[in-house]
Amino acid sequence: MKTILYARVSTVDQTADHQLTQARQAGFEIDEVVVDQGVSGVNVPLAERPEGRRLFDMLRKGDTLVVRWVDRLGRNYADVTDAVRHFIRKGVIIKTVINNLTFDGTTTEPMQMAMRDAMIGFMAGAAQSQAEALKIAQRAGIDHAKAQNKPRTYKGRKPSYTRAQFDTIARMLAEGGGASEISKATGLTRQTILRIRTDPSAANDALADWGL
């Protein structure tokens, strides 16, 4: 029987060392560390991550899977609950470093099973709520920087048009020009013209963000 730490870090310049240190400080004796690096837990299910996929093959009955918190197994409610329940059906014990929670797959007593499953649902819901709150906060930060006319860290995709082309589009639109006519005049796709016509402010802001 082995104790395996699964760690996920979202960027390639981060490491899982701090998660291993936290686990050891919490009293866990780790036999093996499995790390997914540069993988987002928000959109990628555990089974589709390069290293997360290995857990489904390597974990056996009686093994212990240690994670910093359940969000390491995914921040989507369905992903977390599916992964946890898959492992406990195999007899794997899942433990978290934070809050020292235990999801015991060897439990057979009905009331303990019910309490365990309720806790799985609650923690999975909390993980997804946390992820959604983070996305809202990031969006608010971007909007605030934009409102303050400050350069944004995330600039989005580089515009496919130049400042000169944008000015030509704005002028021709003001003169009543159609999308097909402007497309021929600027060499841009009709879809690009329609997108700029729909939200010229956003199109202008994109140029500014890229310093164009």
Give the arrangement of secondary structure elements.
Blueprint: E1 3-9, H1 17-25, E2 32-37, H2 52-58, E3 64-67, H3 77-89, E4 93-96, E5 102-104, H4 110-147, H5 163-174, H6 179-186, H7 190-198, H8 200-209
Parallel strand pairs: 1-2, 1-3, 3-4
Antiparallel strand pairs: 4-5
Helix pairs in contact: 3-4, 6-7, 7-8
What does this structure look like?
The chain has a 5-stranded mixed sheet with strand order 2-1-3-4-5, with helices on both faces. The protein is built from 8 helices and 5 strands, in the order βαβαβαββααααα. The protein folds into 2 domains: 3-134, Resolvase, N-terminal catalytic domain (Rossmann fold, 3-Layer(aba) Sandwich); 163-209, Arc Repressor Mutant, subunit A (Orthogonal Bundle), CATH 1.10.10. By secondary structure, it is an alpha/beta fold. The chain is 50% helix and 11% strand.
Number of domains: 2
Instruction: Spell out the helices and strands N to C.
Output: EHEHEHEEHHHHH
Shape: elongated
Number of strands: 5
CATH architecture of the largest domain: 3-Layer(aba) Sandwich
